[in-house]
Task: inverse folding
């Protein structure tokens, strides 16, 4: 091979600027290059595997095959810079800025309140921008598809859609209308005169002007047309990259280097290299080979080049389906089904059909359909070309095919369908879109003309083994038989015998996957029956009530109605309080200018730290050997317990917490040490080389049940009791016992945890730029670790890219480790956890088990309930006791149960310690009592809504079970208004009718009330402080102890200052949260941030106003700047501190009494769902929420918090499932395995109404805290699903009462809808049962 001795020049453009890279590193992805080399921080790191969309940019290239410039949204985290030769990149900074001019996309997402924490916003902006470059007047479906690969953990997606739908031609309409469905333009409920539905106004929005867009650089067009670059070669420290000039050169290279992977889209090889550390010394890039991208039509079908992207394939097939005879395009129609939901748009733009096939991963959907369609592969090598049939024999194992290492897949021929041939595709995933399938299938059957006699049949499955599985014996038995019920019965029996998984199969979910295999075939059977019937063939009828099973759920964009009370007419137009004001940093977040901790430019000499974590759940540390790691390039040092200058071990409420494990590890993921190196990649690679020798210890306790058996609990064990439970049981007409399990939840904040520690070199001072919700605690822990007083440690927090409670405790440990590294090296050290490490180390929401005994009357009145709560606290205490306390304090929800007892046990196990999460135990405590009432309703044969209503608190002066007085009036108002606005009773009747007419699809509806305590039950946390400074030019700087993490605390603080000082919000600025400005601040948590900070800011502002009042009276015509200058000249202090001493809250646990909360936030929610009984899939149809937020300080922000919390609740109760192995290893360590709600999971109708005429005398301007309560409303989907399952079970003669744990995943739904297929699947399981995962 004639390889160049020197590296080639890499030429590409970023935001119109030419970049010539003479030392391009093949291992460097565009994301890192943009952030570290170009200094463009708007493109964010969210996961590093293409699973979140935070790193979305637009890629443009000239395509000679069609003589056009093409624009794609792509994931920068998976795009090697070496693949960019001759291409142009546009980032969020390249389309607009606050310094020059906003792009309309940036402006509209901000104005529509579509940016909360803002970390995902640049990615959202770039996905939409790319769509508009390709389609200036998109449809709502276009928008839905464009944003399908972008995750948001804050907003609930609706406001993002609201902003972007203004680009649609019919922007005012939801475009979701269906028969029987109400369009968003049709107002069902009348709105009072003092109520408004308008959260924003786009009348003065910037118009879309394509002439302002960056043009594709002409030089790149000329380069592409010349095609004279020849072979390109780039050499990095570890990897060499060769980009051949043409197909001939590629064949030659592959012959010389057969083991080198051929890369195009990098969506398969990339994650393995980035996340798993796989090293390929040589990579051959095939993206420049035009022959691999060629599409040719022939008489028998289409031949698609192997390097054609999945997006291109989709467009080609859609064109064919729209133009050709439908009978000829059945294969194409089947292929389009997975192509519409396979991965996100960005991945489909990068991934290729050849890569999808050759990856030989059975979770990838296309192979099963391509095999069923008898597609042919054209393969080329130095020896010539050959044709290979794509079937089960093509795949020899997981990730392996029959192709020789030197062979190249040139193209795939996808045939047209033959007469009397029918093809279908099926898949079921954790999430309907943007998720790998758990099982997929491709099925094809051909009949003798005008008959129902099977001539050929092929059934292929992915997900039922390490590779593609063909049901060959089954198919052979079915040939020659008539398509009838007997064939179906025999086929299911044969399929179960042939392809059924054994109990210990890789991946678990055995019964579910086996059931899906049969359910898919049953759906195929019914589809084909309908086709034959439509052609006049004499076959049995498909019952009408079965037909809905054949209609897939339609993914739609969320729309909704919102209402809130207008401010009084007498309120000054200059007073912003109570008005829907935009998040103050929304424009900066939409332009990528908003700075997060990892956006801070590198400090001179900066190092990086990477954690070394335990691989055992419980073991003695015998030895730690970092010698190999210390010899690796760039490694500076290894730190462990012996390097801590202060305390490595500290007490937290009398329980020990270790910074570094010294003698014993107590969970997988516990930090043992850390590598410090020159780059983050070097630190990570070296950390993987540190050898730890263990001696396993017993017992290893992982689950709640194991902890109960061993009586392994943290202390204290809490108890609350009202009345006399035994007496209540004695009076009850019915007694019921049961239990409810709720799984945990990963925070999945878009910004992973981390910080920068900068030693100041004097007196032990150190600055930390940290992503913390509790800067004061971080300061304290770092001081203890370093052995210095807190006044030497200063924590700076600009903003967080999401927190949700996860950045309160664990970030303090990470900060102390990073500070230790900085102390030892004397250099600044940066820590940025990778997504997988973040999920492994930092813990999440506690799993809970509630065991109950309840006594009730025949009318549903509950007299007594005894509930024992168990939570899995993990290996250390963290905040588990406080979380259990909150669960117990919420165990009554809104119900007056005369005799109520609750006991709470925090289980001590060998899992990573669970920690605070939005709701803080409230959702678990509330859900278990709701489950109790649900089961009571079932036993009484009453609607659950009636049982809930009959048991609600009603007295104006009511007392909780811990004897705190409150008025339930607003809760009752929310409940009644919710039922009215949701048309609950009317829809309940419609659901009953729907269920009677549909056998395989069922609907359910559920409504719940809410009483949620606001504030900290530990009274000393209920305090706030602030500092307000007025400068001589009239500008105002506010500092406070809260943390801005998307909830809008800074915006509300500015509104308060604006009201009191009577100045425009534009004059007020909040720079950061800093422990040097406001000491000893409480955490931003418990929905109490605005209450505490708002009151403190108000206090400081009122002090300033009172100082200025004499001057205002003396000089009434002075402008604000003139007034300030006069005050300065009069030696009036223009700086004031503010303090809020909140209420004393506490609980006497011995007496079961005490005012635990400052006040209560009330609400009610109603949700409707539809389930597919054959697959377990479900669709959230509609949700209505009515919330008492008092007098909202900012309705736009409050409604955003309600929607965002609710959508996080969707995840908690339906799809977010943490999986642990029997060894205690977390298996779900990234967005590929762990699914948070995406756009497709949000109900198409999401309506939120703020209760009118609500007041709250306890908090700032009669407002209420709202951050945490709405998470619980996700349980309405859980109970609606349970109602739908019950409808299916009743129809099949089964019990209404059945166990269902949370989350209600597709697996649980399907297996609860018992039928002949579930029976066959479970009875046919083979071998001993070794669980793949455990319920912890």
Result:
């Amino acid at each position: 091979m004639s390889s160049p001795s020197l590296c080639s020049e890499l030429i590409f453009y970023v935001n119109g600027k030419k970049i010539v890279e003479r030392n391009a590193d093949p291992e460097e992805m565009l994301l890192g290059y943009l952030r570290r080399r170009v200094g463009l921080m708007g493109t964010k790191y969210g996961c590093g595997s293409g699973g979140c969309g935070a790193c979305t940019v637009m890629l443009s290239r000239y395509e000679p095959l069609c003589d056009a410039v093409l624009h794609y949204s792509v994931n920068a985290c998976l795009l090697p810079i070496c693949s960019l030769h001759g291409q142009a990149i546009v980032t969020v900074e390249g389309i607009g800025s606050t310094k020059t001019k906003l792009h309309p996309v940036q402006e509209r997402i901000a104005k529509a309140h579509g940016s909360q924490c803002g970390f995902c916003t640049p990615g959202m902006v770039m996905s939409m921008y790319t769509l508009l470059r390709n389609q200036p007047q998109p449809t709502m479906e276009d928008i839905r598809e464009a944003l399908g690969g972008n995750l948001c953990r804050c907003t609930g997606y609706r406001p993002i859609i609201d902003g972007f739908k203004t680009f649609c031609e019919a922007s005012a309409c939801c475009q979701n209308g269906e028969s029987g469905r109400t369009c968003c333009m049709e107002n069902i409920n009348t709105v009072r005169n003092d109520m408004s539905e308008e959260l924003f106004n786009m009348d003065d929005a910037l118009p879309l002007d394509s002439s302002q867009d960056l043009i594709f650089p002409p030089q790149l067009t000329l380069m592409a047309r010349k095609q004279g670059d020849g072979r390109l070669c780039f050499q990095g420290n570890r990897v060499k990259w060769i980009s051949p000039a043409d197909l001939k050169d590629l064949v030659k290279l592959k012959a010389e280097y057969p083991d080198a992977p051929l890369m195009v889209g990098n969506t398969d090889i990339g994650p393995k290299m980035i996340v798993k550390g796989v090293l390929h010394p040589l990579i051959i890039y095939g993206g420049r080979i035009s022959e691999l991208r060629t599409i040719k039509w022939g008489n028998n079908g289409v031949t698609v080049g192997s390097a054609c992207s999945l997006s291109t394939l989709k467009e080609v097939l859609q064109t064919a389906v729209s133009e050709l005879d439908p009978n000829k395009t059945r294969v194409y129609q089947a292929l389009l089904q997975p192509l519409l939901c396979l991965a996100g748009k960005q991945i489909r733009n990068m991934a290729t059909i050849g890569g999808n096939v050759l990856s030989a991963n059975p979770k990838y959907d296309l192979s099963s359909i391509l095999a069923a369609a008898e597609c042919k592969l054209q393969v080329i090598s130095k020896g010539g070309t050959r044709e290979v049939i794509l079937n089960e024999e093509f795949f020899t194992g997981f990730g392996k095919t029959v192709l020789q290492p030197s062979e190249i897949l040139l193209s795939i021929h996808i045939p047209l369908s033959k007469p009397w041939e029918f093809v279908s595709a099926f898949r079921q995933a954790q999430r309907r879109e943007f998720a790998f399938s758990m099982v997929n299938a491709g099925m094809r059957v051909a009949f003798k003309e005008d008959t129902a006699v099977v001539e050929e049949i092929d059934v292929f499955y992915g997900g039922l083994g390490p590779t593609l599985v063909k049901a060959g014996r089954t198919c052979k038995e079915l040939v020659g038989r008539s398509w009838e019920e007997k064939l179906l019965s025999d086929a299911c029996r044969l399929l179960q015998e042939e392809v059924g998984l054994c109990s210990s199969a890789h991946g678990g979910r055995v019964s579910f996957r086996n059931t899906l295999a049969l359910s898919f075939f049953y759906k195929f059977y019914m589809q084909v029956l309908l086709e034959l019937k439509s052609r006049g063939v004499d076959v049995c009828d498909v019952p009408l009530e079965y037909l809905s099973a054949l209609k897939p759920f339609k993914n739609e964009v969320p729309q909704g109605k919102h209402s809130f009370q207008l401010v009084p007419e007498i309120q000054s137009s200059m007073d912003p309080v109570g008005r829907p004001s935009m998040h103050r940093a929304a424009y900066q977040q939409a332009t990528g200018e908003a700075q997060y901790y990892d956006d801070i430019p590198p400090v001179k000499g900066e190092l990086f730290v990477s954690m070394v974590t335990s691989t055992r759940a419980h073991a003695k540390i015998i030895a730690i050997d970092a010698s190999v790691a210390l010899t690796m390039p760039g490694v500076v040092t290894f730190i462990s317990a012996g390097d801590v200058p202060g305390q490595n071990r500290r007490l937290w409420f009398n329980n020990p917490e270790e910074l570094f494990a010294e003698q014993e590890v107590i969970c997988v993921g516990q930090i043992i040490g850390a590598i410090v190196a020159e780059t983050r990649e070097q630190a990570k690679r070296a950390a993987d080389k540190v050898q730890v020798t263990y001696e396993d210890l017993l017992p290893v306790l992982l689950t709640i049940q194991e902890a109960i058996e061993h009586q392994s609990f943290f202390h204290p064990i809490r108890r609350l009791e009202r009345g006399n439970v035994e007496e209540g049981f004695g009076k009850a007409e019915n007694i019921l016992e049961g239990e409810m399990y709720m799984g945990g939840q990963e925070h999945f904040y878009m910004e992973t945890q981390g910080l920068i520690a900068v030693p100041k070199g004097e007196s032990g001072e150190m600055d930390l730029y940290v992503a913390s919700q509790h800067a004061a605690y971080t300061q304290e822990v770092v001081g203890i670790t370093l052995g210095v007083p807190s006044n030497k440690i200063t924590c700076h927090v600009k903003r967080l890219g999401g927190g949700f409670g996860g950045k309160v405790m664990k970030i303090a440990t990470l900060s102390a480790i990073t500070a230790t590294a900085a102390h030892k090296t004397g250099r600044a050290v940066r820590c940025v956890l990778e997504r997988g490490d973040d999920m492994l180390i930092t813990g999440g929401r506690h799993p809970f088990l509630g065991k109950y005994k309840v006594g009730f009357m025949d009318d549903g009145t509950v007299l007594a309930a005894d509930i024992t709560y168990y939570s899995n606290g993990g290996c250390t205490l963290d905040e588990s006791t406080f979380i259990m306390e909150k669960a117990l304090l919420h165990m009554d929800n809104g119900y007056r149960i005369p005799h109520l007892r609750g006991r709470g046990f925090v289980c001590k196990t060998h899992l990573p310690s669970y920690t605070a999460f939005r709701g803080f135990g409230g959702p678990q405590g509330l859900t278990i009592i709701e489950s109790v009432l649900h089961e009571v309703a079932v036993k009484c044969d009453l609607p659950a809504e009636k049982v809930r209503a009959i048991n609600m608190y009603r007295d104006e002066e009511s007392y909780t079970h811990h004897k705190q007085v409150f008025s339930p009036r607003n809760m009752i108002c929310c409940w009644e208004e919710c039922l009215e606005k949701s048309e609950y009773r009317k829809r309940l009747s419609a659901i009953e009718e729907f269920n009677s007419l549909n056998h395989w699809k069922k609907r359910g509806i559920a409504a719940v009330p809410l009483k949620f305590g606001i504030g900290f039950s530990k009274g000393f946390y209920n305090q706030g402080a602030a500092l307000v400074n007025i400068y001589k030019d009239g500008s105002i700087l506010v500092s406070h102890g809260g943390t801005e993490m998307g909830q809008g605390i800074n915006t509300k603080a500015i509104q308060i200052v604006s009201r009191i000082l009577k100045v425009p919000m534009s004059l007020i600025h909040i720079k950061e949260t800093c422990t040097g400005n406001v000491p000893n601040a409480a955490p931003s948590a418990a929905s109490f941030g605005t209450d505490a900070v708002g009151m403190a800011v108000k206090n400081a502002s009122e002090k300033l106003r009172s100082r200025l009042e004499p001057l205002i009276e003396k000089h009434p015509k002075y402008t604000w700047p003139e007034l300030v200058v006069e005050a300065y000249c009069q030696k009036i202090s223009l700086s004031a501190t503010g303090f809020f001493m909140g209420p004393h809250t506490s609980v006497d646990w011995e007496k079961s009494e005490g005012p635990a909360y400052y006040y209560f936030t009330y609400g009610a929610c109603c949700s409707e769902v539809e389930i597919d009984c054959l697959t377990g899939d479900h669709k959230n149809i509609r949700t209505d929420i009515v919330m008492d937020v008092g007098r909202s300080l900012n309705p736009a922000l409050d409604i955003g918090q309600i929607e965002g919390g609710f959508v996080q609740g969707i995840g908690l109760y339906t799809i977010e499932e943490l999986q642990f192995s029997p060894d205690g290893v977390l298996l779900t360590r990234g967005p590929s395995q762990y699914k948070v709600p995406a756009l497709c999971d949000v109900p198409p109708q999401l309506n939120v109404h703020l209760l009118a005429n609500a007041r709250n005398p306890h908090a700032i301007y009669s407002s209420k805290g709202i951050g945490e309560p709405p998470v619980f409303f996700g349980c309405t989907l859980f109970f609606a699903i349970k109602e739908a399952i019950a409808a299916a079970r009743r129809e099949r003669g089964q019990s209404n009462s059945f166990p269902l744990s949370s989350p209600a995943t597709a697996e649980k739904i399907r297996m609860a809808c018992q039928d002949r297929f579930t029976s066959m699947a479970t009875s046919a399981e083979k071998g001993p049962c070794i669980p793949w995962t455990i319920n912890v």
In short: The chain has a mean pLDDT of 95. The first helix runs from residue 30 to 38. The radius of gyration is 31 Å. The first strand starts at residue 10 and ends at 14.
